[in-house]
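Table S2 (text version). Query chain:
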Amino acid sequence: MDFIFIHPGSREQKTISLSEEEIQDRLADELHDELSCDCQPIGETNVVECGCDDYIQDFELIDRKA
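Corresponding C-alpha cell output:
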C-alpha cells in the first residue's frame, strides 16, 4: 500500500510503500490501546471491579496471514 505525502510549499511528493504485514507491525501497539472491555458497575454503585486492564492486556493481534 502506498502512502503519499506532499509538502505544501514546494509541492514535492514523497511515497512510502508498506505491506499489510509492515502496517500491522507498526500499528499493533496503537491498536491494542483502542481495546476496551464491557465492565459493569457492581450493584448500585459506580465501582467497577472486573480486572479489565489485566484482561485486555492478554489480547494478541491476529496475524492477517493466518
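Notes on Table S2: The CA atoms of residues 6 and 13 lie 4 Å apart. The chain is about 30% helix and 15% strand.
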